């Protein structure tokens, strides 16, 4: 019988060169505008997607455009993308098409929690801002997001794994990034917001495989008062 520690060591080696880290109570800090700083996320299961939900938390002082979550494939650099061009809206891309979600401008900057889901069956995109659903909008009904993604935080990819533009780079802090290959229920979304994670994510903040490119730092989550 193989002793457990050796078995674990073998499993760790088999999982490749990317460590898996529990980033609970951590953030990625993006200190400045940049055309190179980014975090690349690695997913072991590279299946095509007909449904997904992405949730994350972020805090920025930016008023210019910035990309939050860029999922590029060989068929589309915007196969799935969450990006802000204006402080009063979010743009969500699926397969290169876009829907925009208007939001009230914030009185003062603070952490925001967002979840975005898409379902190929009806094309509906759900957008949740701090646990509240916005009216659903649809796009790309019947579409399939290609396998083999290049997944990047902090930059918009205009090509597979690159084509970063400093004018859309993120500055601030990002935390609690998760992706599920399905549409989460209302209960699921509310759980995620409180860091209780629904089962079987493809990207899991509490066990994240990632590579940092250039100036991005893993730091403690500084919990604001009143949260
Ligand atoms: C970056 O984006 C700006 C604004 O959209 C554009 O004018 C500029 O050409 C882009 N730069 C690169 C290197 O793509």
TrEMBL record:
Domain of life according to the entry: Eukaryota
Stored PROSITE patterns: PTX_1, PTX_2
Keywords from the UniProt entry: Acute phase, Calcium, Disulfide bond, Metal-binding, Secreted, Signal
Residues covered by the Pentraxin (PTX) domain: 24-224
Entry keyword annotation includes Metal-binding: yes
Localization: Secreted
Main subcellular location of this protein, as a coarse class: secreted
Note on how the cofactor is bound: Binds 2 calcium ions per subunit.
Cofactors that this protein relies on: Ca(2+)
Signal peptide: 1-19
Subunit structure: Homopentamer. Pentaxin (or pentraxin) have a discoid arrangement of 5 non-covalently bound subunits.
Similarity comment: Belongs to the pentraxin family.
Protein name: Pentraxin family member
Chain's gene name: LOC132712552
């Amino acid at each position: 019988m193989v002793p457990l520690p050796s078995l674990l060591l073998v499993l760790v080696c088999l999982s490749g060169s990317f460590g898996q880290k529990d980033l609970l109570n951590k953030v990625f800090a993006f200190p400045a505008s940049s055309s190179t700083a980014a975090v690349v996320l690695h997913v072991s299961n590279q299946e095509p997607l007909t449904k997904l939900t992405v949730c994350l938390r972020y805090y920025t002082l930016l008023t210019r455009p910035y990309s939050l979550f860029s999922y590029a494939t060989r068929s589309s650099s915007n196969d799935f993308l969450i990006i802000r061009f204006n402080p009063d809206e979010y743009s969500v891309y699926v397969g290169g098409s876009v829907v925009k979600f208007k939001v009230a401008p914030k009185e003062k900057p603070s952490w925001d929690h967002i979840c975005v889901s898409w379902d190929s069956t009806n094309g509906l995109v759900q957008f949740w801002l701090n646990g509240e659903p916005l009216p659903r909008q649809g796009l790309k009904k019947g579409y399939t997001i290609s396998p083999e993604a290049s997944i990047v935080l902090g930059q918009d990819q205009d090509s597979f794994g690159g084509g970063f533009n400093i004018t859309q780079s993120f500055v601030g802090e990002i935390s609690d990034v998760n992706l599920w290959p399905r549409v989460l229920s209302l209960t699921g979304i509310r759980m995620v917001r409180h860091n209780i994670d629904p089962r079987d994510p493809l990207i899991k903040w509490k066990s994240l495989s990632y590579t940092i490119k250039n100036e991005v730092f893993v730091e403690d989550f500084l919990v604001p008062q009143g949260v």
